[in-house]
Write a structure and sequence with these properties.
3-stranded antiparallel beta sheet
Length: about 190
Amino acid sequence: SADEMGYNYLWAINSTTCVSCTTCTVSSLPPSTPPIKVAGNTALEHKYAMFWEPGRMTWFYDDNPVNVINDPTYTPNHAIHTILNFAAFWNTNYTSPLPAYFQINYLNVWQLNTACLSPVSYCGNFNATTYNANSKVNQTITIGGSSCSDNINTSDNVNFWATDYVLLDAGTTITANGSGVFSMNVTPCPN
């Protein structure tokens, strides 16, 4: 479908002791996990991403978070391999013409920048462009305050990452200005 992004992952539990996956216990997505609905035509070029951290996996579509599984049961805690494939559904209602094509322009594997012992605070000086270019996992992130005036637009597509908390204090406004989202994530400091 042009408005869905499918996702799946499988991993062998205790894989370091397994000789082949036929002898391993295999985990995957929670049962009945539906495809992610996304805006726009997925036949066009888009950016797909997944952020994997202890106990949680977050999926992004064009830099916007679209789904999260926050459950250690369904999150691998050891090294995994990335497989990119083009899956076609085999049901009788599949109406897309074949052959179909899947093109990948690039694959990036990255780790968040960290300043996990550094709190940051913005009071009247929050700038989404600067923040996005220099974003890190900080100890805390505070925006606003009683004598501050800061604004975040939904079109800014800002993702805040902190180990302790993210606080949008008094004087902070969020304006629905164009399509987009922002997310606030509390996460352990990445290694």
